[in-house]
Amino acid sequence: MQKLSMIMTCWLISTSAMAADKDSREILMLSEAQRGHVLQEMRGLLAGTQEIVAALSKDDMAAVSKAARPLGLGMAHKAEDHLKDALPKAFMQLGMSLHQHFDQIAADADARKDPKLTLRQLSDAMSKCLACHDAYQISTASTPGQPAQAEEHQHQHQGHSH
Ligand code: HEC
């Protein structure tokens, strides 16, 4: 009990310290529609991840594969057209490597049927969710209080070589 209350105290201190910090993650300037696409994909990732965990709890490797497939590179290619010019390269690469993880999870669930292996792979994949969420936030030009104009100005000088 005492140990638990100590853990709780530490948790309270660290979360209140975090709340006091300004959100200093890199800002992605997107249109409302682009933001909608990103967040919709995100909710798909969360839902799919939940399905994988549920399937694993029943050792149902066919269901693991079925849940992981739609989160693979196919998902990325659907979103790419709308977004690839709007998002930084590092962001796209992190996203692509996450989708590759899910293709691997699906393939190994079919071929090797080893729940412990899938759990390890899922944990590795989810460390990419964490890394990206630690690094980026989304803003739209209509969000009050964000430096939308300064960002816009910088981008005008970059041209469209890629
Ligand atoms: C390449 C970057 C990246 C990766 C990888 C990533 N996310 Fe996100 N995610 C974001 C960004 C950016 C936001 C918006 C954060 C903000 O503006 O505060 C977001 C938001 C979300 C949201 C909120 C959706 C909403 O409707 O508000 C969920 C849920 C989410 N992500 C789940 C996940 C899960 C689960 C994974 C891993 C399986 C994941 N994300 C991987 C970048 C990423």
Q: What is the strand tally?
A: 2
Main sheet attributes: strand count, strand direction, barrel closure:
2 strands, parallel
What CATH architecture of the domain at 28-139 would you give? Up-down Bundle
Tell me the strand order in the biggest sheet. 1-2
What is the helix content? Answer: over 70%
Low-confidence stretches: 148-162
- CATH topology name of the domain at 28-139, in short, is Four Helix Bundle (Hemerythrin (Met), subunit A)
List the bound ligands. Answer: heme C
The first-level CATH class name of the domain at 28-139: Mainly Alpha
Distance between the termini: 59 Å
The oligomerization state is single chain
Order of helices and strands: HEHHHHHEH
Quick check: average pLDDT?
A: 83
Radius of gyration: 19 Å
Give a description of the structure.
This protein has 162 residues and is mainly alpha-helical. It has a domain of 112 residues: Four Helix Bundle (Hemerythrin (Met), subunit A) (Up-down Bundle). Helices cover 72% and strands 6% of the residues. The protein has a two-stranded parallel sheet with strand order 1-2. The longest helix is centred in the N-terminal third of the chain and has 26 residues. Heme C binds next to α2, α5, α6 and β2.
